[in-house]
Amino acid sequence: MSLIDGNTCGQAGPDRRWPSPGYSWYMVVLLTIVYIFSFIDRFILGLLIQPIQADLGLTDTQIGLLLGPAFAIFYVLMGLPFGWLADRKRRTFIVAAGLAIWSAATAVSGLVRSFLGLFIARMSVGVGEASLSPCAMSLMADCFPKEKRGKPIAFYSMAISLGAGIAALTGAAVIAWATQSDYVTIPGLGDLAPWRVSLLVVGLPGLLLVPFVLFLREPERTVDTVTSNAQGIGYRAVFSYIRGRPAGFFGVVWVFGYVILIGFSSSWGAAAFARTWGWSPVQYGQAIGILFIVLGPLAVNLGGWMSDRLLQKGHTAAPLLVGLYGVPVMTVAGIVWPLMPSAGLGLVFLGAMLAAVALSTATGVTALLNIIPSNVRGQSVAIYYMATALLGQGLGPLCVGLMNDHVFGYDNLRYSMASLPVIFGIPLFLAVPWILKNYRQSFEKLNSPQS
Fold first, then answer.
1. Could you list the residue range(s) of the whole structural domain that residue 165 is in?
2. pLDDT tens for residues 24-59?
3. What is the count of structural domains for the chain?
4. Residue 111 domain-assigned?
5. Please, are residues 101 and 128 in contact by the beta-carbon 8 Å criterion?
6. Which of 34, 319, 322, 336 has the most C-beta neighbours closer than 10 Å?
7. 9 lies in some domain
8. Residue 381's closest CA among 192, 135, 170, 164?
9. pLDDT tens digits, residue range 142-201?
10. Structural contact between residues 317 and 181, judged by C-beta atoms closer than 8 angstroms
11. Residue 186: inside a domain
């Protein structure tokens, strides 16, 4: 029997036969590679802030808009229809189409000549990437039983760190090569600035993955004690379900939205190191790339392992607890690293912050899936990503840009970045007991035999 034979999926119901481990992990690995490519395309712009500003004459607020809302708002708007489709249509086709869109849009980002053009290109990246996670999480949930989902979802989440690390190292290598001259001549495109070449180089290879995703075979959809069939239902019913249990859902969004906010504040890292310690994008890209690749996967897989172990021991809030374990570390490190007297010390605390973010992000969707019925997983994951993207990526980079333009000034970017964890972290710390209490109640309601 083939290890990637999608027909190994069994029928939904009490006697459910899960897909073979070989097929399930093949799908997880392929989706993780796609996620890595998505994060490369998402991260690369932050490494190129300084040369883009010099070329296009953009303010920090405009850069904040490109790093945050340009991507996040349209990621959110398209997440809902993609989530609806994920509960009804062939999910692998949806992911393949999205992959083609965001890869092409990243490449086109290197060709635009204005803030508006770059904004539209970043918007298109958000539209394409919105297709991925609702479908990927729904697929993985249909390949693994509840008590075994932590590891594959954590493995998939590892792409955040790997993608950022590969983006940083790739960007650093391309910039180092391209900056040997003021422009790089590309046949048919003419003379391009190094930052433009970097976007082309990281965007186009994603198109090569489209056929592999297109021909994946899907597992059958599962059911649970709350649903009687595997057919998706509408968003009105999904929002109604969430409104009936709002505290559990929004507690998860609050915790992991904050984690994403802290993580995406590092989009300003290259600019902060340049303005504070005089580092070039190449120096920063090499250093942060190694940190991401070494620390990220270890932290993410540790988070998944911890979640599975705690859940097996009867801790119903296990994924949420693991997420909360990283919050104090990322908050303190996020305040401290920009204020260090040297770049070396700054990197140490930045690494601690990124490791804590990676640990926490490993369990965000697992926490959500454990309190959501199976026939609304795709749409619920889409709503989760919508809310966390608005809070985390939408607000984080933009707030830094606004504070820098209107409060601290261009050369004091470090103070804008250090302020962010204080502003958003204190309310979360105060709400933790309430969040945990309501999450446990939501878990018990879903998994009760009377549900």
1. 16-216+232-447
2. 888 888 998 898 888 888 878 888 888 888 888 899
3. 1
4. yes
5. yes
6. 319
7. no
8. 135
9. 777 776 777 787 788 777 767 778 878 877 887 787 677 777 778 878 788 888 888 888
10. no
11. yes
